[in-house]
Amino acid sequence: MPYLVVAVVFVGALCAVNLLLTLAVIRRLREHSAQLANGRSTRPPLVASGTALPEFTASASDGTTVSQDFFTGPTLVGMFSTTCAACHERLPEFTAWAGQLGPGRALAVVTGDPEDAGVFTAALAPVAPVVVEPPDGPLARAFQVSFFPTFYLVDDRAVITAAADAPDRLPLAART
Fold first, then answer.
1. Where does the Thioredoxin domain lie (predicted)?
2. Peptide bond preceding 149: is omega within 30 degrees of 0, i.e. cis?
3. Which of 112, 117, 137, 169 could pair with 164 in a Cys bridge, judged by C-beta atoms 3.0 to 4.6 Å apart?
């Protein structure tokens, strides 16, 4: 009989702990749902408009040297990663906008293994110089990229005027 009492108390305590954990998970899910409903995401914020780019230098696949001097007018910059599924989805949108802006008004940066960047380079090279760099490369650091894909508008003073997670969320219509 004492073993039966101990077993019942143990199962009861186990059920109580399970109930508390389930309630904690439900509370956490409600918090995330509320954040999503309010338009807030768990992504880190994008770099603020008005941020000046720090000194950097990189070489594009076409031989173009990219630094602050590259920006001679409003320029669309796309930051892609070879390991990012959303980057593949946004690629056609970026190439369409970059094609409309004309020569010298777009720059693409692909982060990842150079062998894996071939698909991106082939698609982006007709519309923009393409810089392939390792994770946390000089351009990713300069633009303070915290997630991919990220898109920027940069003015002729190398100052970021807008940032978004999709090209169509940038004020591009006024630039074309």
1. 47-176
2. yes
3. 169
Q: Please list the pLDDT of the chain residue by residue as tens digits (176 residues).
A: 888 889 999 999 999 999 999 999 999 888 878 776 766 556 666 888 899 999 999 999 999 999 999 999 999 999 999 999 999 999 999 999 999 998 889 999 999 999 999 999 999 999 999 999 999 899 999 999 989 999 999 999 999 999 999 998 898 755 44
Indicate the helix (H) or strand (E) that contains 17: helix 2-37
Q: Give me the phi and psi of 67, to 5 degrees please.
A: -150, -165
Tokens 């991106």, residue? Answer: 120
Are 102 and 75 in contact, with CB atoms under 8 Å apart?
no
